[in-house]
Amino acid sequence: MTKTTTVDRPAASVALTLRLLGGIERVGNRLPHPFWLFVILSGVLIVLSWGLHAMGVSAESPTDGATVAVKSLVSDAGVTMMLDDLIDNYATFPPLGVVLVVMLGVSVADKAGLLTAMLRAALAKVPVKAVTYMIALTGMLAHIASDAAFVVMIPLGAIAYRSVGRNPVLGAVVAFVSVSGGHAASPLVTPSDATLAALTTAAAHTIDPHYTVTPVANYFFSLVSSLVLALVITVVAETLLKRRVAMMAADDGEEAAEPGEELPDLSLSDAERRGLRSAGFIALALIAAIAVAAVPAGSPLRGEHGAIIDSPLVHNIAVFLSLIFFATGVAYGRAVGVIRGAKDVPEMMALGLRELTPILVLFFAISQFLAYFKWTSIGEVVAISGAELLDSSGVPITLIFVGVILVVSVMNLLLTSGSAMWALIGPVFVPMMMLLHVAPETTWALYRIADSCTNPITPMSPYFVLCLGFVRRYRPTAGIGTLMSLTLPVSIAMLIVWTVLFLAWYSVGLPFGPGSPTP
User: Fold this and answer.
1) First-to-last C-alpha distance (Å) of the chain
2) Which pLDDT score is estimated for 198?
3) CA distances for 396 relative to 390, 391, 403, angstroms
4) What distance in Å separates the CA atoms of residue 449 and residue 181, rounded to the nearest whole number?
5) Which residues contact 496 (CB under 8 A, 6 or more apart)?
6) Cβ distance 165 to 119 under 8 Å?
7) Which of helix, strand or coil describes residue 444?
8) What is the CA radius of gyration of the chain?
9) 10 Å Cβ neighbour count for 87?
10) Model confidence at 259, in pLDDT bands (50, 70, 90)?
11) Residue 62: CA count within 13 A, CB half-sphere
């Protein structure tokens, strides 16, 4: 009797988990497209501002003692603002220009094949014992390729495992959780850093109109996080997932299916190796030139009194990133023969921006919502009231941090767009934390954790489905539950370890990046 109960309990837990995940999937599927979600939220905001204004809701600003009252969008001033500022709201939306400029350079590097070649080179000759850690770390590096990292890394992870005689299913899963679960951790500054930094700056302006958060404001934390998370993924994969995959093979009684012919080979051609050398030389030359130009105290790249951190160099890091991507992409493309003439380069830029169109459409809806939200002062009132409540409650700041991580992690199961969710909650969390004497850079670091760790377990993510598709090439019977059973342990482990790393980092008082204030 006892034995039966012991066997049934795990089975019941698995069934309960799958039902819960199925419920999340059904709820998530009912959510509208993010564009319409922000349109609906704008409508709700209009009604809410009218009601709160009618009730006389307000708060006293702790900075100057002035009364901050909610303003109604259902008023002459509100309607005039919505009509007069519609174009400016979009044209001056902070992430818009940053994304466009960065993607001009990234598009050349991507379309020339440089980014894919770099990832293949990183995995081409990996020792058997190091294959898991190298795939995980390469996944962290792959974030520089944005969403293209999923399309490249998942099949490469499977092939890398298969090339050393290991189960390709595990290789695909390791690659997926590295790119998905650790997407906000990277040894490099990525395009999403520029986008989220601009959104964080806009949110901080609620309290301090002159505050600026740079794309490198979390770089130290991101760099260390990528190394730690790669190790976490390796430990879980080698101790737990390896056994899970072996049990699946024994239970199913199937051989892994052969990969499709379209899966790329890891080996590089002579032209590709020559292209990587050319790109590497150009990258080093540009970085050296920028460094030399910034050496003189009176350099225009430096800030006031010769400052390096608070300077045009750091504030405009997105421009320099775009330049490096552009130059290295051209060098690689010329070497491999993809770029044959000057006209090929702007065509690559146009192709890259064309793929960016869905984001630009989403930005229109987000920009209007945020402009309305800021004008009504609802965010400021909520931030002040929330900060006062938390301050008076005596709750330790570390518990508040953990609470924020857990709340946002759950939200991330349904709203998987990182920039869209930060645009939604940043205007509340950033000012509220600032009133609790927590810098915007620290709140952004919190969001990195919460916005990453639950990505591998939500069926709402299109890349979850993409990974499942690759897994099914090797194991046709695999379903959502199959992939979930492999990603859930890694997701939980990453969430715990990354949160502990953050709390330790904050407790020691280390800056999260160049120019970030010490906690």
Assistant:
1) 56
2) 87
3) 9, 9, 11
4) 9
5) none
6) no
7) helix
8) 24
9) 9
10) very low
11) 16
pTM value? 0.70
Helix axes 219-236, 131-141, angle to 10 degrees: 150
The secondary structure element, H or E, covering residue 147 is: none
Whole-angstrom Cα distance, residue 499 to residue 306?
36
Do residues 488 and 189 touch, judged by C-beta distance below 8 A? no
Going from the C-alpha of 150 to that of each of 173, 180, 237, 246, 456, the distances in angstroms are 11, 8, 19, 25, 12
Query: pLDDT category, 158, cuts 50, 70, 90?
Result: confident
Within 8 A by CB and 6+ apart from 386, the residues are: 428, 432
Can you spell out the DSSP letters for 446-482? HHHHHTTTTGGG-TTSHHHHHHHHHHHHH-TT--HHH
What φ, ψ does residue 388 adopt, rounded to 5°? Answer: -65, -40
Q: Which structure tokens are listed for 81? A: 């603002």
Structure tokens at 329: 């992409």
User: Residue 305, exposed/middle/buried by CB under 10 A (0-12, 13-18, 19+)?
Assistant: exposed
Q: How many CB atoms lie within 10 A of CB 15?
A: 12
Could you say which DSSP state residue 144 is in? G
Please check the confidence at residue 328 and state whether its pLDDT lies above 90: yes
What CA–CA distance (Å, rounded) separates 252 from 272?
Answer: 41
Nearest to 107 by CA among 275, 269, 338: 338
How confident is the model over 467-486, as a mean pLDDT? 77
User: What average pLDDT does range 364-377 have in this prediction?
Assistant: 86
What letter does residue 296 receive in the DSSP assignment?
A: S
Count Cβ atoms below 10 Å from residue 6 Cβ, excluding itself: 9
pLDDT in tens, 48-91: 999 999 999 888 776 667 788 999 999 999 999 999 999 999 99
